[in-house]
Amino acid sequence: MGTGKPTNPPAFDPFGLHESERIYDSSWCGLRRDTVILPNGRHQEYHVFEVGDAAVVVPVLPDGSIVLLGQYRYPHGKTHWEVPAGRIGPGETPAGAIGRELLEETGYEAGKLMPLPGFYPTNGISAHYAHAFYALDCERVAAPKPEDSEQIVVQVHTQDEVRQLLRAGMIQDGFTALSLLYYLDLNTSAE
């Protein structure tokens, strides 16, 4: 790798598709079983989980501290620290979705919304994409209004406290960890 601008690896040709079968569909997600044609001509089954794109935001207060949510997650039964995130609704932009999620989950509004690198959180099984942002000059304008299935506590942490949580492995949500690491790295790089 040279000293120039970073680049992606060269692209491979996509697999061919022999057949595709719908296994499951709901308003929340879908599952499909594809039979793909590999470069050597052999066929292989590939399961694809379908879920709509999401948006995630690191909420930053005027003093630089970060708003985190302590949130219970049913699939594993644990409560851990997260930043606001959620699905992008039909006809909604990623920025619109994150403004809605930020207000619903924390009661804060962003003064300025800035993009972070987005990512594929489960790219081995899904094309699900997360649009990431950080929100500067957040101001509390209302009480949080979580959905019925959301159990949330809102807490403000200094950037040093967030770094300690990351180093201790206490930020276990992938959306949150990656977004915080991007924000902290870019914020430190800009200083």
Characterise the protein shown here.
By secondary structure, this protein is an alpha+beta fold. It has two domains: 16-50, no CATH class; 54-190, Nucleoside Triphosphate Pyrophosphohydrolase (Alpha-Beta Complex), CATH 3.90.79. It has three helices and twelve strands; from the N terminus they run E-E-E-E-E-E-E-H-E-E-E-E-E-H-H. It has a four-stranded mixed β-sheet with strand order 7-4-10-9. A three-stranded antiparallel β-sheet has the order 1-2-3, with no helix packed on it. It has a three-stranded antiparallel β-sheet with strand order 6-5-12.
What would a concise description of this structure say?
The chain is α+β, with helices and mostly antiparallel strands and 191 residues long. The chain is 20% helix and 38% strand.
> What is the CATH C-level name of the largest domain?
Alpha Beta
Question: How much helicity do the residues have?
Answer: 10-25%
Terminal Cα separation, in Å?
A: 27 Å
Residues in β-strands, percent:
35-45%
Q: What radius of gyration results from the CA coordinates?
A: 19 Å
What would you call the structural class?
A: alpha+beta
Gross CATH architecture of the largest domain: Alpha-Beta Complex
Task: Walk across the major sheet and give the strand order.
Answer: 7-4-10-9
| Order of secondary-structure elements | EEEEEEEHEEEEEHH
What is the name of the CATH superfamily of the largest domain? Nucleoside Triphosphate Pyrophosphohydrolase
CATH topology of the largest domain: Nucleoside Triphosphate Pyrophosphohydrolase
Q: Give the CA-based shape.
A: globular
Query: What kind of sheet is the major sheet?
Result: 4 strands, mixed
Low-confidence stretches: none
Mean pLDDT: 93
